[in-house]
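Sequence in, structure out. Go.
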Amino acid sequence: MNIAAVSKEIETLRDEMVETLIELIKIPAISPDSDGEGEYDKAMKLLEIIKDWPFDKIERYDAPDKRAKNGVRPNILAYYYGEKGEESPRLWILTHLDVVPPGDLRKWTVTKPFEPIVIDGKVYGRGSEDNGQSLVASLYAVRALMNLGIRPKRTIILAFVSDEETGSKYGLEWLMKEHPELFKKDDLVLVPDGGNEEGTFIEIAEKSILWMKVKVRGKQVHASMPGLGLNAHRVALNYAKELDEFLHGKYNAKDNLFDPSESTFEPTMGGNPSDAPNIAPGEHEIVFDCRVLPQYALDDILTDAKKLAREIEEKYKKEVNGEVLPKIELEVLQRLDAPEPTPKDSEIVKLLQKAIKELRGKEATIGGIGGGTFAAYFRKLGIPAVVWATLDERAHQPNEYAKIDNMIEDAKIMALLALL
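Output:
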């Protein structure tokens, strides 16, 4: 194994890597859930880029979604076999094709979201860091091995999947449900979609995720005569305050594996149809983003939230035009129950620690996060997975960028993982 030669080869590919990242950023890949067309065009561009590369097998799996361009959400698997061919142990590296919407365009001051530009060693554009940087790094980690004629110890499976940003229903979750034969218990999995600026944090655990919409219905009325209706806005504010305090009080354990160490319950979105200062609205919605330590059951949180809803309904109970109001409903927008963490002494953790030590001379730390990644789906299958990358953490922000040096250096780590 000559990692020095592989690292040198990756360095020679720097300009090509930057150009590939630029070409991919130019193509919006926004979910239909966020009023986009999906990932089709970006997937086709990726397939065009790698069509002449000597992968041993490239497979495309289209999840049907009539809302998306051409009615599908593409998922691509590219295989580069190890030294024992198809019998080699396997390493997955998973990245996602989709990106979040640009947000407020006025805050993009360096360039427009899908008009990438290189400044001071950084590539700016939506999706540059999340997840373009790691996608390109994984591609060229393999390309360097191909160029040198090296067959790694482990077969590398590069997975480029859809729908990570809005729940994975048409991406990894769909693949695991519809094609379980693709996954093996002894696979190793790297998800380069989280990390820190030094590239020394290895994520082995995630909190459970619950996105919960609270919908309150009252009776719209002129604000000067509130007795004739029921102000849903007031009821919703009271409920949100009570729920916020209750959840933080009951589910208050700490686990230092995570940062932050406690469960979080954040009201994030809200609103009502009132369009004038003198209208007391008859409807109001509030969304809670809950990131919950694995020791707690999401069903218990939902039960508590529903019980409190009944109590608040009773508190404001009123008959209006023959109907008893208010009505409080809970809708689960997204739910992911945290699986058991990847063991600290699992092979993928030890290999990644070794690669970071060898190439960077640094000791990697291990911990958990509040966000959700692909790793959770593998952990549910009992397949050890880690999340790692070197990131400036510009994801989902205006003026998002990928640092070119991070992309190059992470490609070296990925290549070494397959060689160890």
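Check: The first helix runs from residue 3 to 12. DSSP finds ten helices and 19 strands in the chain.
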